[in-house]
Design a protein that fits this description.
Elements lengths: L1 H14 L1 H6 L22 E6 L2 E7 L2 E3 L1 H17 L7 H19 L4 H17 L4 H19 L1 H18 L3 H26 L2 H8 L13 H13 L10 H4 L11 H33 L4 H25 L17 H35 L1
Length: 376
């Protein structure tokens, strides 16, 4: 909890100023971004390794995670692509996926499975908002489902393959070739899943993907996080044990409680009521962003807001889901709560950009009202 307090101290001493500045439409013109120049650093630039992954670079004594800022870069880029032409054609869809695949591949090879999933969620959410056929989106995620079913439940895979063939037949411009291509892609995905499991995934990634189903298989190893997290949340009961009074939290039985498992600390110390309050706050923020996206004055602003909304919702669902045992541990932080300078700054910049879209709409509406008045 002390680490969390230090994180909020950072917000109160300057971090909050950044999203407030971005919420001013005169201070940022995201649609006119043409290039990016990194600021000069007074210190050396080098990689920072942690648990086998190269996710940080150190600049002037500060650890920076570039993949966090890449999320915003992807949102802005896809909004720029999709604002002029909706993704209701195969060409636009492939162009969008090609752009999203570049940062996704680089992050996945770090390896950082959790953040790479966020890139995929952002792309799918923005494609849906840009009038992409829902059946095409199902076809896009079908290989992921096939990777699981092909190796764990072959009968289920045959049923899934039949569904995919029907979707491809009725939604793609070329029914026969589309159905054949969809089936072939899912077969190859199943075979690739076996190769991925045996050769490409790290041991800790394998543990994260399977142990959430039964963490008691390895209670002192890969399942330790999930077991302690569920104990902590259950111990909170209705009202919680009180701030700084949680035994699992204060005695450090929960690893990474200030980052990935911050929701476990909330559940133990503030109970079911505290968890509901946190969820209500997230719901209010997401509802506000959905309202901004729906009422934006242009396509770029609408896509920008929906991209940020998708990013926040996906991270929130996965993070909370993994703390209560409904999702594998992927290392995705809980927005605005998990400690981490790069993630915290990225999320504040993101919500600042959404508020910029909202303020731009209000100012445009006001100017339009004055113009109508003068015309009369």
């Amino acid at each position: 909890m002390a680490t969390l307090v230090r994180g909020w101290d950072w917000i109160s001493t300057g971090g909050i100023a950044r999203p407030l500045a971005l919420s001013n439409p005169d201070a940022v013109a995201v649609d006119d971004i043409r290039s990016h120049q990194s600021p000069k650093s007074g210190g050396d630039l080098y990689r920072y390794h942690l648990r086998g992954a190269q996710r940080w670079i150190t600049v002037a004594g500060f650890n920076v995670q570039p993949s966090e800022f890449a999320k915003l870069g992807l949102i802005i880029t896809l909004a720029g692509i999709l604002q002029a032409k909706t993704a209701d054609t195969i060409g636009t869809l492939l162009k969008t996926l090609g752009v999203a695949a570049i940062p996704w591949a680089l992050v996945f090879l770090q390896p950082d499975l959790g953040t790479s999933l966020v890139f995929g969620a952002i792309a799918l959410g923005m494609l849906y908002w840009s009038n992409t056929n829902p059946g095409w989106l199902v076809l896009l995620i079908s290989p992921i489902v096939s990777i699981v079913l092909f190796n764990l439940y072959l009968t289920g895979w045959f049923i899934w393959a039949a569904i995919i063939i029907l979707i491809a037949w009725f939604t793609l411009p070329w029914p026969q070739w589309g159905a054949l291509g969809a089936l072939s892609g899912n077969v190859l995905a199943g075979e690739f899943g076996q190769l991925l499991w045996e050769s490409l995934l790290k041991d800790y990634q394998k543990d994260r993907l399977i142990l959430f189903l039964n963490p008691e298989q390895d209670p002192l190893g890969g399942g330790y996080h999930l077991i302690q997290s569920r104990i902590a949340i259950g111990a909170g009961q209705l009202w919680g044990q009180g701030l700084h009074q949680g035994t699992q939290t204060q005695l450090n039985f929960i690893p990474e409680q200030h980052t990935d498992f911050i929701f476990s600390a909330v559940g133990e110390e503030f109970g079911f009521v505290g968890c509901i309050v946190v969820l209500f706050v997230f719901w209010s923020i997401c509802l506000r962003m959905a309202f901004v996206a729906h009422n934006a004055s242009d396509n770029f602003g609408s896509l920008l807001a929906i991209g940020v909304l998708t990013m926040i919702v996906f991270q929130m669902l996965v993070n909370i889901g993994m703390t209560i045992g409904l999702a594998p541990v992927t290392g995705i932080p809980l927005p605005w709560m998990s400690y981490g300078r790069s993630a915290l700054l990225t999320n504040f910049i993101a919500i600042g950009l959404v508020e910029s879209v909202a303020n731009h709409r209000q100012r445009t509406s006001l100017f339009a009202g004055h113009q109508r008045k003068h015309q009369r």
